[in-house]
Amino acid sequence: MPRFAAMNDTGKQLDAGDLCATVTPGEPVATAWVWTGGQPVEVSMEQQPRAAHGRVSLHVRSSPPNSRVPTASMSVTIAWESPVAWPGSEDLFLVMESRTSGQVERFRVRVQGSPLQKGASAASAAPEGSWLWAIWRLLSRGLMLLLVVVLCQRCC
Prior knowledge:
- There is one protein chain.
- By secondary structure, this protein is an alpha+beta fold.
- It contains 1 helix and 8 strands; from the N terminus they run ββββββββα.
- It folds into 2 domains: 5-125, Immunoglobulin-like (Sandwich); 127-156.
- It is 16% helix and 34% strand.
- The longest helix is centred in the last third of the chain and has 25 residues, at 131-155.
């Protein structure tokens, strides 16, 4: 019985648990590829980003555009709908399952809250819960409080 194999957008074959795609506010769409061996493969998101961070949808294409012949591969396009920027990232799980072979694999999809700098990797961004995230939250709240105080002094 053929087993499916997943690849990222560079063509690297993925193992279970590997990062298959990263989406950012600037690049909210990414594609993974699956060699299916001609067998049906189901794809689903195990969870969604936190409510304030938008929603991730999947678009599966099992044959090339305008093709009338089924192929042994498919593309999985991951789209971050209504992306919301924030200084952190969140890893979600994409599940692929072949009921024919019984194979089930989970791959990570990274929702990166801020656009990646050139030369930076998604792993180097500050995840929520880190000290950089705490500093960001304190500064943003402090600046908001300062703005309110200044505006109140002008009015009164």
